[in-house]
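Exercise 3.2. Students should predict the tertiary structure of the chain below and write it as structure tokens, then compare their answer with the key that follows.

Predict this chain's 3D structure.
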Amino acid sequence: MNIRDKLLAERASSKMSFDSSDALFSFIPDLQERRWVAAPNGGVTHSVRGAGELSISAESHYATVFLRPVAGVFTTIDSDRLEEINVPAGAVGVAPAGGQGRTIWPVSRETVAVVIPPGRLTALAEQECRGGIADIRFTPAVSPDRWALQVAQMFRDELTSSVGVNELYVDSLITVFGIHMLRKYGDSAPARSRGGGKLSSEMSTESVNSCRRTSGRSSASPTWRVSADCHRDTLSLPSQKHLASGRTSI
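Answer key:
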């Protein structure tokens, strides 16, 4: 099977599994209050809501980007203990697949949520990395992420566009956002042998060192492990103008 046929087959397969909101967004109770689109590699939603709360049991990796600052937010995951945080614009809250979370916010908020199924993130990790283990950890939305904010604004603009949503454009952004999650919100563990082959001890050491992310995260936080040897730390993003001009050729 050539590359083109393989890509077409993967696209058809992913459509059957994830094109329906019932399958991809089934764990989001307030979906009817959001704009959303499902794509082969995941989905994205946009919402502007007044004060309220949300409880989820994440069936997929779930990242919420706050487009506006929100003070006095209470949040928790896999616990009954609520923690009060002040959320700056661009902060990203990450709930790994399998986590149960609850958020209470006292004022209006605008958010973009990116949903990536575990299998899709594993596939991205295999392309992005080699041989190690990357853990996607629970991350409270306390630190601004300018890159994620820029992409979230692109998602919002696309979902609110009067000319309709370009699914391929959205799917491409989801893929890039998934790689960003692996690089910024993942931790590493020693490489494991796969497929009957063996990684050298040198590569294993390099995997641990190069995959390591921000220190100080609690080991008790829920994680989802995907095969990875994340050997790059930053992700360059073309300007929004450049990406927008590229849309016309899709």
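Discussion points: The CA atoms of residues 51 and 106 lie 5 Å apart. Residues 13-19, 188-229, 238-250 have pLDDT under 50 and may be disordered.
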